[in-house]
């Protein structure tokens, strides 16, 4: 068995608030879903992958329950998906506390096909985008949406009225007070799928898929390591004399510092006006010039006692980047040192990689009981080591405990020498089948054989009796491969 380094590094504090996305539609007869997160460089990271027979509610329930089990029962805080009713229902059932968001890009992409029949469809599209993206309160969204429907005679359009009913699940103003690590669209998953496509063709067998999945992880890891190295060895110069910018320069990865710098540049388009102030609490109106004739206005509040700044645009809340409007107010208030609450460890270049090693998906052919025990031990000991390494005294206690435990285990092993009780155990295929197989449900007219031409040929060469056996074993093995990768990976992430 080999070990490959984990290809992703999710910030320790906010992995659970990092929204995984799932994107469907990767390969022919099997439905491929990928769980994608964001690392401290803002890069997409592949957290897990699934292959399902169909996209029914029950299948998604099975998938999400597997995910939850891998996460030790901890549901993610946010979950971004395509506009899919089955996934919505399954998520509501399996993760009722998780904030579910539909990909806005997929919805907006449908505008031409849904509204093409109207005379002024180009104007309609432009106005709808304006209402969706530039409504800075729920009330103003409601007003703007109604005006939009009335102006274009769209009050009877069913697609739009259904979308309005579900506005809480896709319109930014309803969702951006939650942290999404900059994710608003499942395009990250789509790009991950196109990334898969570089490695895998339609003729690839399932076993090849698993191996290439591992290569895909390795490639992502390489990209992250290169970014880590660049952050460590180089410094991006500050664009201003602001000590706040220098705070971010010191803390953030290059990618995130560039985002902060973009906000500093954007500050030059902002005009800050104090509306009222009492007992250290001030309300500002920041006008931002977005074109020669258009100014957007944002309400920004500043509490000098709590050193707290809050802007209506919710950029900090949703992306963890302090916005240009808030920065303008901080300048106005002559704040020279930013409260640490605005410098997120999530984007820190000093983020610790707790999970430095992970098994490759094809390292281990079956999810053996020994592997399960190993995984459970690693999972526990990681927490203990984190705790112990805080001080020399704690570390010494742990070393003594290790010595005692080793002596006890060696004594037991010596006592049982010659017996098989501590030896390698055979895998139990049935138990994994029970864990990984989705409920048997009706498919939607897809071909019966879903395993691809190469595998079909292999199977066809066998006897009829063997054919059934080979097929079932390959399927079981495959799901075990995926399960190993998936469970191992997520077990580690659940610990962050
Ligand atoms: Zn703002």
Automatic annotation (TrEMBL):
Q: Which GO terms describe its cellular component?
A: nucleus
Highest taxon in the source lineage: Eukaryota
Indicate what this protein is called per its UniProt record.
Protein FAR1-RELATED SEQUENCE
Q: Which PANTHER family match?
A: PROTEIN FAR1-RELATED SEQUENCE, PROTEIN FAR1-RELATED SEQUENCE 10-RELATED
Query: Which organism's genome codes for this protein?
Result: Arachis hypogaea
The UniProt keywords, alphabetically, are:
Metal-binding, Nucleus, Zinc, Zinc-finger
> Where is this chain primarily localised?
nucleus
Q: Which GO terms describe its biological process?
A: regulation of DNA-templated transcription
Physiological role: Putative transcription activator involved in regulating light control of development.
